[in-house]
Amino acid sequence: MNEKIQKFKADYEKNEQKISALQEKSKKLLAKITQLENEEIIGLVRDSKLDIDGLSRLLNKGKKEPTIYKDSEEKDNEIQE
Fold this sequence. Notes:
Blueprint: H1 3-47, H2 52-60, H3 72-80
């Protein structure tokens, strides 16, 4: 096989290994970020002395239930009203 082709294939393989290693590292970093964010959120909730029901009410405060339309005509009627 041509030496240039062999060299390019070797470089390509080396790059693929580096990419794979970096992707794995990125996944681990993202998991650690998520873990730390979750711990921070839990700490804030506990510091505010909220129970699960209180937290749920707080998070849903001001939320409107989504309207589910059967068809577009029903939606158009509500918009006109």
